[in-house]
Specification:
By secondary structure, the chain is mainly alpha-helical. Helix content is about 50%, strand content about 5%. It has 7 domains: about 30 residues, no CATH class; about 140 residues, no CATH class; about 220 residues, no CATH class; about 220 residues, P-loop containing nucleotide triphosphate hydrolases (Rossmann fold), CATH 3.40.50; about 70 residues, no CATH class; about 100 residues; about 60 residues, Serine Threonine Protein Phosphatase 5, Tetratricopeptide repeat, CATH 1.25.40.20. Helix 12 packs antiparallel against helix 13, helix 15 packs across helix 18 and helix 23 runs parallel beside helix 25. Belongs to the caleosin family.
Length: about 1200
C-alpha cells in the first residue's frame, strides 16, 4: 500500500481502527510455508499483549497473562532476575547462584522423572552446559552451572523464546502455538515433531540434540526445561449453557471418549442400585480406612493422603445428598471410579504416591464443584428485572456450568487413567515409572488449572451475588440517609477546629489522667481470644442495642472483671459510628486521682470533648473550647456539678454516648455515692446515654442500682478463658517440650477445679509453677496438689515463701509492701529501691545499690507487680492489698513505720543548734510532721509532733537551707518557712543552683510553682532554671518559665562545673533534650529571642549545633542567624561532626572544600577528629585533586 497516496490515507486509517493487524502481511501464497506457519497476531476482540516482539528482561508475559506470573507474587519477588534465571531458580534450591549436579537430580526427581531419567538429565545437562557458564578458562571439575552466566548456554534450533541475554520474547512464545498447534490450545506429539523440524537450523547438531532432549525425552512433557506449555488457557470460547446444574454430571459423562465410557459402564455392576449417596460415601470411607490400615506402616508415606481423602469425603457427605438430584446411575459413577482406582493401587511407591495424591484431591474437587452448583442458581442470582442484569447473570451462570462440565469430564478421565495404570502388571508399571513418570503429575496439574477456572467463574458469580446484596443495602441506606445526614451535620456544626497545641492544653487542663495508658496496660495483659463470652450474653446485647440504660457487672474478687471491661471498651470503640462518643475509666483504690468522683468525671468530660472517630483530628466540641479559661474568669473550677452539667450537654449533642466504668467499688466509699447519683441522673434525663459499670457486691452499690439490669460473673463463665490464659502463659514455655499432652490436660483440669472462676488465683498458681527450679511431671503435680483453694490460701503460700527467705530479704519485702501501701502516688523503681534500704531506727541507707525490677519482684513474690507501661510499682490486685492490710500490716502500723523512717532519714541532714541560737529573725518554729493516710479515707491520721531545735544542714558548705529543702521536696510540712522566706528564695552561693532550679531538677512541681507565684528570680544560679527544665525534660516547668518571661539567653560559665554544653538554654536543648521534643524546644527558644551566636564558654550554640546536630536542626539555627558568617569556617566545623554529614549543606552555601581554614583543610580536620565517614565523603567528591 502506498501510504503517500492521498487516496489510500483514509482506507489505511479505517483499517487501523477495525484491526491494527489487518494492514500487516504475514503470508504469501507463493511461499506455502508462510501460510502454514502464521505468526501470532492479537485481534481487536481479544486482550492485547502490548509490544509482543520486545523482549522482557524479568517478566514472562503471554497473551493470557500480560503481567506475567502473579501467583505468590512471583514476578515482584524475582524482579532482579532474568526470566531464564527465574526458570533455573527451581533447581537452585539454596539460591546461591550455583546449580550442582545433585541439585539437578533432585529437581528432576521431584518433577516425577524417576531415578534413571533424572541421572540421564544430569549427565546431558551438566556435561554440555557447565563449561560455558564458567568465569575462567579451566573447566569446573564439579560440573557446576553458574546462573549469572546461564544466558551463555543458549543453543540454536530452539523456539527463540529466550534471547541470547536470557530475556523472554512473548512473540516467539505465542508463535509456537500459532504456527504448530493448528488452532488447538495444546500440542500433540506430531506438533512437537513439526516444531523441531520447523525451528531446525542448518549445520547445528548440538542444537538438534538439545531440542530432541528437551522436547521428547521427558515423556513429551512440554512444560519442561524451557517452560514450553502443553496447554493454553483459552478464555474466548463459548458453548451453549446447560439447562440446569442437575445436568452437569450427565454432560460430563456424555463428553467422554468411548474407552472411558466403556470403563464407567463396567463399574456400574459394583453400584448398589438402592443405595443413597450418603451410604455409598460411607462405604468409601470404610474402604479407605481399611486400605490405610493395611499400608499404615512406620516407613510408609501414604498416610497423609488417606487422611485427606477421608476428610473431604466427610465434607461431601456433610453438604447433603450429592447424587439425589442427578441421574442415579451416572451421578454415582465418579465415586465408583474413585473406589476401583483406590483398590488397584498396590506397588511402585513412586508411581503409586502420585496416583494417591491425585485420588486424595478428588473428593475436594467434587466437593468444591458441588458447592458452587448449590450456591449459585438462577434464584439466588436474581438481581432485578432489567434485561442487562438478567443477561449478565445468565452469562455468568452459563460460563460456570460450562467450566464445571469440562472439569467433571477431566476428572472422570483422570480417574480412568489412575485405574488403568494401577491395574497393569508389575513389569508394565515399572516401565511406565521409568520412561513416563510425570504423566500423573501432568494430569493433576491440568485438573488444578481447570479447578482454578471453575473457582474463578465462581468468584464472578459471587460478585453478581454481592451486587444483589449491595443493591438491596443501598436501597435501605437511601431511605435512612436523610436522617444520618441530619445527625452528622449537627455534630459537625458543634465541632470546631483549633490549634493542636491549644487543644492539648485545654484537654490537659480538664484532666491529666492517662486514661488511655491504663486501658492499654490492661489490654496488653489480656490473653488474646478471651472475654468474648460476655459479648454474647443476652443482658449485654440488650444494653448494646439500647440508647439509654445502666447495666452492672458484679463479680467476686479476682474474677477478671477488669479484663471483661477492657474487652467491652474495645468492642464499643470498634462498633462506634460517626457522631458517637465513648468514655471509660479504670478506678484504682491506691491512687488518689483514680478513686475521687471529681477526677473521674473530669476524665470522662475530657474524653467526651470529641467523638471517638474524630479523636485524631484537631477538633473539639464548642462547649469545651476555652473552657478552663472561662471557668477561671468566673472563679469556678471543674467541680462535680460543673462536670455533670457539661457531660449532659455533650451527650445531648452526640448521636449516642457510652460511658464505661471499671471497679466502682474501689472508689472512695465516703464520696462514691455522689458519683453513682451523677451517673443515674445522666441516664434518667437523657435518651442517648448509656452506662456500663463493674463492681464487687458492695452493699451501697447494690442498694443504689437496685432494679437495674445485672450481669454476674459465675465460675463457669471463665473456664475457657482461664484455660486460654494457662495455655498462653504456661504451655508456651519451652520447658514444656518434654512434657506430654496428657499431663497438660491434667493440669488444665486442676485449674478448672480449684480456680473457681478466679483469674487472680490462676495467675498466682501459674507464677508458682514457673518459679519451680526443676520442671517435671512430678514436681508440677505436687505443686498443684498442694495448691490451696481460694485467694487467701494462695496469698498465704506467697507470704510463707517470703518468710522462708533470709532475714534481710524478709526485711526488704516488709519495707517494700509498707511503702507501696502508704505511698501518696505509685513509686518508681529507683524510689522504691531507696526506701527499701532505709533502716527505720537510724535512718541510714543500707548499701548503695539500686534493685532491678526483677530483684524486687523475686523478693515480694507475686504481691507487687511492675507496671512497665507507667514504670511504677503497684499491688498485683486489690485483693492482694486487702490481704496485706487485713492479715499482716494495718494502716496505722504501716504509716507509723513510714513516718518514723522518713523522720530518721531527714534527720541525717539536720544539725542540733543551741537553744540560744537564732537561725531566723522570727521566733523558733515548731515543726509539725503529719503523715496523713490519703490512700484510705476511713483510716486515722497519724500525727507525730516533734519540737525541733534544728536548722537544715547543707550538703555543701555554701548551701542554704532552702536549697536542701528544694532537693528533698520539704515543702508542705515546712510551708511556713517557705511563705516567710522572702528574699531567701533568691539566695544561692556562687556556682550553685537556686532553689527554683533545684525544685525543677528534682520534679517538685508544687515547690517551683510556689516560687514562681512568689515572684522569685527567674535568672539566677547555675545552671539557670530554664536550662534545668530542658536537661530534665520537665515540659511543665519549661512552659511555665517561658510564659513567665524567663531569659532565653541567660547563662553562666563557672569552672569547673560548667562544660560549656549546658550554659545556655539553647545549648542545653541541643545537647540533652529528647529527640521527640528537641525541634519544638529549639523553636520556642528561637521564637523567644535566643541568640544563636551568644558565646558563653568555649562555643556558641551555632558552633555546637554544626559539630554535633543534624541538618534539620542546623537549618533552624541558620534561619535564625542574623550575623554574617564565613561558610568555610562552618565547613571546618562540619568536618568534625561524626554523627551527621553536613558537608553538602555548606558546600551548597558556598564553602570551598579545597580552601583551608586557619591553615587546615576540612579533610585534615576530619582526620584529626577520627571522623572516618567525613573523610570518605570528602575523598569521594568529584573533581577534587587532594593529592595536589
Amino acid at each position: 500500500m502506498d501510504f503517500d497516496d492521498t487516496k489510500n490515507t483514509k482506507s489505511y486509517s479505517d483499517a487501523l481502527k477495525v484491526d491494527p493487524n489487518s494492514i500487516i502481511t504475514t503470508s504469501i501464497d507463493a511461499v506455502p510455508v508462510t501460510v502454514e506457519r502464521k505468526p501470532y497476531q492479537p485481534g481487536v476482540d481479544k486482550p492485547r499483549l502490548a509490544h509482543a516482539g520486545v523482549a522482557r528482561a524479568n517478566l514472562a508475559a503471554t497473551h493470557e497473562r500480560p503481567e506475567g506470573t502473579t501467583e505468590s507474587n512471583w514476578a515482584q519477588r524475582h524482579q532482579d532476575q532474568t526470566v531464564l534465571q527465574q526458570h533455573c531458580d527451581f533447581f537452585d534450591k539454596d539460591h546461591d547462584g550455583v546449580i550442582w549436579p545433585l541439585d539437578t537430580f533432585r529437581g528432576f526427581y521431584q518433577l516425577g522423572y524417576g531415578i534413571i531419567l533424572s541421572v540421564i538429565s544430569v549427565l546431558v545437562i551438566h556435561g554440555n552446559f557447565s563449561y560455558p557458564t564458567q568465569s575462567s578458562l579451566l573447566p569446573d571439575p564439579f560440573f557446576r552451572i553458574h546462573t549469572n552466566n546461564i544466558h551463555k548456554d543458549k543453543h540454536g534450533s530452539d523456539t527463540g523464546t529466550y534471547d541470547t541475554e536470557g530475556r523472554f520474547v512473548p512473540q516467539k512464545f505465542e508463535d509456537i502455538f500459532s504456527k504448530y498447534a493448528e488452532g488447538r490450545d495444546y500440542l500433540t506429539i506430531w506438533d512437537v515433531m513439526n516444531l523441531m523440524k520447523g525451528q531446525r537450523l542448518i549445520a547445528d547438531p548440538i542444537g538438534w540434540g538439545g531440542a530432541f532432549f528437551e522436547y521428547l525425552m521427558p515423556n513429551f512433557n512440554l512444560f519442561s526445561i524451557y517452560h514450553l506449555l502443553c496447554y493454553k488457557i483459552d478464555t474466548g470460547r463459548n458453548h451453549p449453557a446447560p439447562l440446569g446444574t442437575s445436568w452437569l454430571t450427565r454432560h460430563a459423562y456424555g463428553q467422554k471418549r468411548v474407552n472411558v465410557k466403556e470403563w464407567l459402564a463396567s463399574l456400574e455392576q459394583g453400584i448398589q442400585p438402592n443405595a443413597t449417596a450418603t451410604e455409598q460415601i460411607d462405604a468409601l470411607i470404610e474402604q479407605t480406612t481399611k486400605k490405610q490400615k493395611v499400608l499404615d506402616k512406620p516407613n510408609h508415606r501414604f498416610r497423609k493422603y488417606f487422611d485427606k481423602i477421608i476428610h473431604w469425603l466427610d465434607k461431601v457427605k456433610g453438604i447433603g445428598d450429592v447424587v439425589s438430584s442427578f441421574d442415579p446411575v451416572h451421578a454415582a459413577l465418579p465415586w465408583a471410579a474413585f473406589r476401583f482406582a483406590l483398590q488397584a493401587v498396590l506397588a511402585e511407591k513412586e508411581q503409586a504416591e502420585s496416583v494417591l495424591e491425585l485420588l486424595a484431591s478428588t473428593p475436594h474437587f467434587v466437593f468444591s464443584g458441588r458447592v458452587l452448583e448449590m450456591v449459585y442458581t438462577k434464584d439466588s442470582m436474581h438481581i432485578g428485572e432489567a434485561q442487562d442484569d438478567i443477561k449478565l447473570t445468565q452469562q455468568c451462570l452459563d460460563h460456570l456450568h460450562e467450566e464445571l462440565i469440562k472439569f467433571y469430564s477431566s476428572l472422570l478421565s483422570a480417574l480412568q487413567y489412575c485405574y488403568r495404570i494401577s491395574s497393569k502388571d508389575k513389569v508394565k508399571r515399572k516401565a511406565i515409572a521409568i520412561f513416563n513418570p510425570s504423566e500423573v503429575v501432568s494430569i493433576r496439574k491440568d485438573l488444578e488449572v481447570q479447578h482454578k477456572k471453575v473457582i474463578a467463574c465462581g468468584e464472578n458469580c459471587h460478585k453478581i451475588f454481592n451486587h444483589t446484596l449491595s443493591s438491596k443495602s443501598l436501597d435501605l441506606l437511601q431511605k435512612i440517609q436523610p436522617t444520618l445526614t441530619k445527625i452528622g451535620d449537627r455534630v459537625q456544626k458543634l465541632l470546631v477546629r483549633i490549634d493542636e497545641e491549644k487543644r492539648r492544653k485545654t484537654l490537659g487542663a480538664i484532666s491529666s489522667i492517662l486514661f488511655r495508658s491504663h486501658h492499654d496496660e490492661v489490654s496488653r495483659k489480656r490473653t488474646t481470644g478471651t472475654c468474648e463470652w460476655i459479648l454474647k450474653r443476652e443482658t449485654f446485647i440488650r444494653w448494646e442495642e439500647s440508647d439509654s440504660s445502666v447495666t452492672i457487672l458484679y463479680g467476686n474478687p479476682g474474677a477478671g472483671k477488669t479484663f471483661l471491661i477492657s474487652r467491652i471498651i474495645d468492642y464499643s470503640i470498634e462498633r462506634a459510628k460517626t457522631g458517637d462518643a465513648v468514655a471509660f475509666f479504670y478506678c484504682k483504690r491506691d491512687e488518689e486521682n483514680r478513686r475521687n468522683p471529681q477526677d473521674i468525671l473530669r476524665s470522662i468530660l475530657r474524653q467526651l470533648s470529641t467523638p471517638i472517630k474524630e479523636v485524631e483530628s484537631a477538633t473539639i466540641h464548642i462547649a469545651v473550647k476555652d473552657l478552663p479559661s472561662r471557668l477561671e474568669l468566673n472563679g469556678t473550677t471543674f467541680d462535680v456539678a460543673t462536670c455533670e452539667s457539661l457531660i449532659g450537654k455533650l451527650a445531648d449533642d452526640y448521636r449516642r454516648t457510652t460511658i464505661i466504668l471499671d471497679a466502682l467499688d474501689e472508689c472512695d466509699r465516703n464520696t462514691r455515692e455522689e458519683l453513682m447519683r451523677v451517673l443515674s441522673n445522666l441516664t434518667n434525663e437523657r435518651s442517648k446515654l448509656r452506662v456500663f459499670i463493674s463492681s464487687r457486691h458492695d452493699e451501697d452499690i447494690l442498694r443504689h442500682f437496685k432494679g437495674r439490669p445485672v450481669m454476674t460473673v459465675e465460675a463457669t463463665d471463665n473456664e475457657e478463658d482461664i484455660s486460654s490464659y494457662v495455655q498462653d502463659k504456661l504451655f508456651r514455655d519451652t520447658r514444656w517440650s518434654d512434657i506430654g499432652p496428657r499431663f497438660q490436660e491434667e493440669v488444665q483440669s486442676v485449674f478448672h477445679k480449684k480456680s473457681q472462676g478466679m483469674f487472680q488465683w490462676a495467675a498466682l498458681q501459674v507464677d508458682q509453677i514457673r518459679r519451680l527450679k526443676l520442671w517435671s511431671e512430678r514436681s508440677i503435680r505436687e505443686q498443684l496438689e498442694t495448691s490451696p483453694i481460694g485467694l487467701k490460701g494462695a496469698y498465704d503460700v506467697v507470704w510463707n515463701q517470703i518468710q522462708e527467705m533470709s532475714s534481710y530479704e524478709q526485711q526488704l519485702a516488709r519495707r517494700a509492701l509498707q511503702w507501696v501501701l502508704c505511698a501518696f502516688r505509685p513509686l518508681k523503681t529507683t524510689e522504691l529501691s531507696l526506701m527499701m534500704l532505709i533502716e527505720r531506727d537510724s535512718g541510714t541507707i543500707e548499701g548503695d545499690i539500686v534493685f532491678t525490677p526483677e530483684t524486687i519482684q523475686s523478693i515480694c513474690g507475686n504481691l507487687l507487680v511492675y507496671d512497665r507501661q507507667s514504670n511504677v510499682w503497684r499491688f498485683s490486685h486489690l485483693s492482694a492489698r486487702e490481704y496485706i492490710e487485713t492479715h499482716h500490716y494495718n494502716m496505722i502500723e504501716s504509716h507509723h513505720h513510714i513516718a518514723i523512717s522518713s523522720i530518721r532519714f531527714l534527720e541525717r541532714d539536720l544539725v542540733l543548734m543551741p537553744r540560744d541560737t537564732k537561725p531566723f529573725p522570727e521566733p523558733e518554729p515548731t515543726l509539725w510532721v503529719i503523715a496523713r493516710n490519703r490512700s484510705h479515707a476511713d483510716g486515722p491520721c497519724v500525727k507525730l509532733t516533734v519540737q525541733c531545735h534544728y536548722i537544715v544542714k547543707s550538703p555543701y558548705r555554701t548551701s542554704t537551707p532552702l536549697q536542701v529543702m528544694s532537693i528533698y521536696g520539704l515543702f508542705h510540712i515546712l510551708r511556713d518557712l517557705w511563705e516567710n522566706a522572702g528574699g531567701e528564695l533568691d539566695i544561692c552561693p556562687k556556682s550553685t543552683s537556686s532553689p527554683l532550679t533545684l525544685a525543677v531538677q528534682n520534679g517538685h512541681e508544687s515547690m517551683w510553682r510556689f516560687i514562681l507565684l512568689a515572684k522569685g528570680k527567674l535568672n539566677n544560679g547555675y545552671p539557670g532554671p530554664l536550662v534545668a527544665a530542658i536537661q530534665h525534660n520537665n515540659e511543665k516547668a519549661f512552659e511555665a518559665l517561658i510564659e513567665a518571661k524567663a531569659d532565653v539567653n541567660y547563662g553562666t560559665f563557672t569552672w569547673p562545673y560548667c562544660t560549656g554544653e549546658f550554659d545556655t538554654p539553647l545549648k542545653a536543648a541541643l545537647s540533652s533534650s529528647i529527640k521527640q521534643n528537641r525541634r519544638y524546644i529549639i523553636q520556642r527558644l528561637l521564637d523567644g529571642g535566643a541568640d544563636v551566636n551568644l558565646r558563653i564558654g568555649s562555643v556558641t550554640a551555632m558552633e555546637l549545633a554544626i559539630k554535633s546536630a543534624d541538618e534539620e536542626t542546623v537549618k533552624l539555627l541558620l534561619d535564625a542567624n542574623t550575623k554574617a558568617y564565613n561558610p568555610n569556617y562552618f565547613l571546618s566545623l562540619a568536618a568534625q561532626n561524626e554523627k551527621f554529614n553536613l558537608i553538602t549543606l555548606f558546600v551548597n552555601l558556598g564553602a570551598n572544600v579545597e580552601e583551608p581554614w586557619e591553615g587546615a583543610l576540612p579533610l585534615v580536620l576530619a582526620l584529626r577528629e577520627g571522623n572516618i565517614s567525613a573523610v570518605q565523603y570528602l575523598l569521594e567528591m568529584p573533581d577534587i585533586l587532594w593529592a595536589d
